[in-house]
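Hypothesis: this fold can be encoded by more than one sequence.
Test: take the structure tokens below, design a sequence, compare later.
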């Protein structure tokens, strides 16, 4: 049975709206939720970027059943890993065990703001590995002191620890990140339905662990409106993470995607209100071996309508298809 999740997309709605959306997603019957953690939107047309951890704290109090997860947090630039460990432990307590900590090597778009530069991907993966080791050590309790090649931790301790620490997920896009995830993570995260990523994750120790994917969708009763909105706000999505991780500003994404057409977007993102089209877009993820798939409804102002449609039409169709 594939679980279907809902994405609180911080790039396209304000903090109060995001909390209201996840409350409605819980009511609609979504199996889990994920939250992006950005300092900038991808494109100016999205228009938002509130602090994800404040949103998650409010969501933990406003909901009672739906699991929460960062998708994903970079624990190496804007945040020191010791601080990420404290935030995650607190979220696990507030949510009464419903939180999972999704981590990744980050994107220049969000991490350049602290002025630390943007190193090569090999260095970013080294930093991520060290950060995960620090976070896990702090989750175990007691004082932690470490002096590594990238981070120093001086007698740190988490004073409020949950009985069960949050499971850690790691985002992957290639062999190197799959190796990290396979031996360091409790679950794997990916945004493309590539079976090869999951096979690499398994080779490095990930066999049997959950695997979470994400799919943008654009619901609207008028398909042309849905396509236009998807093009305006999500045409960056098809560039791939080797490009997306490097660009430093929404204006750079505007320039990089200036020749992407509405037809290009409609060819990769299901648009309109035909549930069969949404089912077929989810299918490659299910067939690749993903156990959980989080949907991103494009357009902050469309969430209520999408969630109503989800409860009545989309979720029943998806569960019939992937039960």
């Amino acid at each position: 049975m594939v679980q279907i999740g809902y994405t609180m997309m911080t790039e396209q709605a304000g903090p109060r709206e995001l909390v209201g959306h996840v409350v409605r997603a819980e009511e609609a019957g979504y199996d889990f939720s994920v939250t992006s953690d950005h300092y900038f939107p991808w494109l100016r047309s999205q228009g938002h970027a509130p602090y994800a951890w404040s949103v998650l704290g409010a969501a933990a109090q406003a909901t009672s059943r739906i699991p929460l997860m960062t998708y994903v947090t970079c624990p190496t630039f804007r945040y020191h890993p010791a601080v990420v460990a404290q935030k995650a432990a607190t979220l696990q307590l507030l949510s009464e065990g419903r939180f999972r900590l999704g981590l990744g090597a980050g994107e220049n778009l969000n991490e350049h703001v602290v002025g630390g530069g943007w190193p090569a991907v090999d260095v970013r993966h080294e930093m991520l590995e060290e950060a995960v080791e620090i976070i896990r050590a702090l989750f175990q309790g007691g004082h932690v002191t470490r002096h590594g090649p990238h981070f120093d931790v001086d007698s740190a301790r988490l004073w409020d620890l949950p009985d069960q620490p949050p499971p850690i997920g790691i985002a992957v896009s290639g062999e190197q990140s799959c190796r990290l995830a396979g031996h360091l993570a409790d679950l794997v995260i990916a945004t493309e339905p590539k079976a090869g990523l999951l096979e690499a994750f398994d080779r490095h120790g990930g066999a049997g662990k959950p695997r979470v994917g994400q799919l943008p969708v654009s619901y609207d009763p008028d398909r042309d409106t849905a396509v236009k909105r998807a093009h305006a706000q999500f045409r960056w999505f098809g560039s791939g993470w080797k490009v997306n991780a490097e660009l430093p500003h929404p204006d750079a994404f505007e320039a990089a995607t200036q020749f992407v057409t509405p037809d290009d977007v409609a060819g990769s993102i299901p648009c309109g209100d035909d549930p069969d089209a949404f089912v077929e877009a989810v299918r490659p993820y299910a067939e690749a071996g993903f156990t959980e798939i989080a949907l991103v409804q494009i357009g902050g102002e469309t969430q209520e309508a999408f969630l109503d449609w989800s409860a009545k039409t989309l979720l029943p169709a998806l569960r019939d298809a992937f039960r």
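The domain at 3-321 is CATH 3.20.20.30 (TIM Barrel). The chain has 13 helices and eleven strands.
Hypothesis status: open.
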